[in-house]
Design a protein that fits this description.
The chain is an all-alpha fold. The chain has 15 helices and 3 strands. The chain has a 3-stranded antiparallel β-sheet with strand order 1-2-3. It binds coenzyme A.
């Protein structure tokens, strides 16, 4: 029988579909807990991407020996993926980095272990960036941790320890985030009894969308467009950010990097990344301060404009806002921002795939039929 009375939640908001030990997003207080730790305590505190993998895959931050074994396993994943590059057909010959890593990861098959998947995503993303720059891919260095090697492979130049540390900050910060759209996608695919690669390929597809992981490139475009209103090297004139934002809203466009489905306060990850940019700037002698100062001004202007339009719906900076500034400061091209998000988030996807397997139940919600009724079933006139 059709249940016309059941409430319709087209965005599944408020619907609890799983129990998880992996992360909790407290949207009212602006807190993100990753397997028992505040994101602020983990990210920027010397915790590496490998440590976050150990935490999410094993339930606790790894000790020295386990950390080294994870580092080796993920490095081996990079080496194996690099050896595959010649057999990927035209997977990396595309203009969009998410299309590229989705197609490349699809060349792996079956139940590839998490460390191998994490190494592969980083290697494919970096190789795609090199191809776009017209350069040959850089072979992984298995002696490095993922953050340092990813920067090296993507840019073709070795990373300083400060740069690797702040990329770790970013990767740890985005490693997991409750039942977000790509994680849910991975869990739905897993719930059918399908394999880990199929789940990760589907999750990459979900992350690609601008409402989820595709926003940081456009955030940088926005900052550049506002900066272009000022002369070379000078600050934008007062009111410039406000005018630009009002024009975007008047044209019916959303401000990228603002708003969140769960957070009603500022996304705590924005603060973590803002601090990472400050640290990076200090080590670079303050050379990049103009971009951070502009980002802060644009955030203030966007927040005020959105508050005026939506007084009852707080729309504040999300993780993508400062992702754009941080990844740019790390010398990554903007087209690589979304794939770099996938490099971090794959840690969470793999952990959720494992968790969902243990649940062992098909995820299969219902829909409300609003189409035509077959004649035979229609009530007589
Ligand atoms: N800029 C302008 N308006 C925005 C906005 C933004 N960034 N985010 C939300 N709104 C507006 C919507 O237009 C809607 O207005 P309406 O009620 O007049 O139609 C209202 O706020 C509620 O938005 P809704 O679409 O219900 O919110 P959501 O929970 O579905 O969306 C996001 C959450 C993240 C998808 C949304 O805030 C957004 O699109 N942000 C920009 C993209 C982005 O930064 N993505 C990265 C997310 S981490």
């Amino acid at each position: 029988m059709r249940d016309v009375a059941a409430p319709l939640a087209s965005g599944l908001e408020g619907v609890v579909v799983a129990e998880t030990r992996l992360s909790e997003v407290d949207g009212e207080r602006g807190r993100l807990t990753l397997a028992g730790h505040d994101v602020e305590d983990l990210a920027g505190g010397g915790v590496t991407f490998e440590d976050a993998c150990g935490l999410l895959w094993g339930g606790a931050l790894p000790g020295e020996a386990e950390r080294e074994s994870l580092r080796r396993a993920i490095a081996e994943g990079r080496t194996r993926a690099f050896a595959l590059l010649g057999r990927l057909g035209d997977a990396l010959q595309v203009g969009d980095g998410m299309d590229a890593i989705r197609a490349a990861v699809a060349h792996l098959s079956g139940d590839v272990p998490p460390a191998a998947i994490a190494g592969a995503v980083a290697t494919f993303a970096a190789a795609w960036a090199r191809r776009c720059a017209g350069e040959a891919p850089v072979a992984p260095d298995p002696a490095l941790r993922l953050s340092a090697d990813y920067l090296r492979m993507a840019r073709g130049a070795a990373a300083s320890e400060a740069e690797a540390r702040e990329l770790d900050t970013y990767l740890v910060t985005v490693s997991d985030h409750g039942m977000n759209a790509s994680t849910f996608t991975a869990r739905v695919v897993t719930s059918t009894g399908s394999d880990a690669i199929s789940a990760v390929v589907a999750a990459i597809g979900a992350l690609k969308g601008p409402l989820h992981g595709g926003a940081p490139g456009p955030v940088l475009d926005m900052l550049d467009a506002i900066a272009a209103k000022a002369g070379e090297g000078s600050a934008p004139p007062p009111g410039c950010a406000e005018r630009w934002i009002q024009a975007e809203l008047a044209a019916g466009r959303r401000i990228m990097g603002m708003g969140h489905r769960i957070y009603r306060v500022r996304d705590p990850r924005a603060a973590v990344l803002e601090r990472a940019i400050e640290r990076l700037e200090r080590t670079a002698g303050g050379a990049r301060s103009a971009r951070l100062a502009l980002a802060r001004e644009v955030e203030r202007a966007a927040e005020a404009a959105l508050r005026a339009r939506h007084p009852d719906r707080p729309l504040r900076a999300n993780v993508e806002f400062y992702t754009a500034v941080l990844l740019d400061a790390l010398g990554l091209p903007r087209a690589l921002f979304a794939p770099t998000f996938a490099v971090g988030r794959v840690a969470g996807w793999c952990a959720h795939i494992d968790e969902q397997r243990r649940v062992g139940r098909l995820i299969r919600p219902s829909s409300r039929y609003i189409g035509g009724v077959p004649e035979a079933a229609a009530p007589p006139h």
